[in-house]
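Board notes (copied after class):
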Amino acid sequence: MRVIVTGGGTGGHIYPALAIAKGILAHQPEAEILYIGTREGMEARLVPEAGIEFAGVSGQGLPRKLSLETLKVGGKSFKALWETKQILKKFKPDLVVGTGGYVAGPVVLTAALFGIPTLLHEQNALPGITNKILTRFVRKVMVTFPESIAHFGVRRKLVLTGLPVRPEIGNISREKGAACLGLRPDCLTLLVTGGSRGARSINQAMPTVLKHLAGRKDIQVIWATGKATYQETLESLKTQGIQWQRENWRVLEYLKDMPEAMACADLFVGRAGATTLAEIMVAGKPGLLVPYPLAAENHQEFNARALEKDGAACVILDQDLTGENLWALVQGLIEKPEKLRKMAQAAQGLGQPDALNKIVKVCLDTAWK
């Protein structure tokens, strides 16, 4: 079995594609996998590092306004179609799977026009433009959120699978998670993160929360500031007279033990990317979500609202985020354990821990045998 996976531009497209590739290999070790991405994108580094064969094509995201740059990007897209055609003729895939991003467009479209079985996976509650266009050409579209179904025109092609998460998520005990971070398993724990690069607005609001929690030995904090804003955050804490090196606080540049942190957390505060939300749903954690305001088509707010609608999260927009507003929301949740418990149940009810197996099954059922 020969499979091409494609997706790029952001980690939100790349990591699901890699998970699908590895899932297929786990079920069919003799399968041959080729990942097609752009030569300049993150995927050009991440895919080889993951041990998957990589082929680069031309590609660039379309500018939001019509300009000379739009014509240049269009030219790259046509070139990518020709390059993809050559790769398809040489590799002869039995299946092509796209996870979105501008590179997926020419690859999936070309494969579909050649009659090769094609699939899409949509991570967000609001589908991206590329995936909405490609829907009419592919065999099936696998979705993460039920809310995204209404945005696609051909419902008979849609399959609700969820989004693959790391196997450790949801499978580590609270005690083991707390021990890994040197914390107590019997204390209420707040987990705060804005992703690997951090979220400046969340980091600027968190010192106020810490001021209110300074005298609370019964509440633990795990706060990953992100590399880009770590030193800035520490300076801010120092300026405000906040002693952040405490036995029940962990203020970190990067949280390498996220599955363990998730295991011992009682409330998650952070952005609303699809992968993040898939993880808190599988882990069964309530969310206090601050959608990234510049995400394409505002898809993070759509993701966050999907959880909010089902009682698994509360949402505050970035423009409304202040230290006192964040503290009011945190306080309103940590002082109501029954509400936290119900939110946790709602989150777990939305989780798809078997997402990867569902996706691989669709892939195997669709591919030429």
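Comment from the instructor: The first helix runs from residue 11 to 27. The chain has two domains: 2-165+353-366, 174-350.
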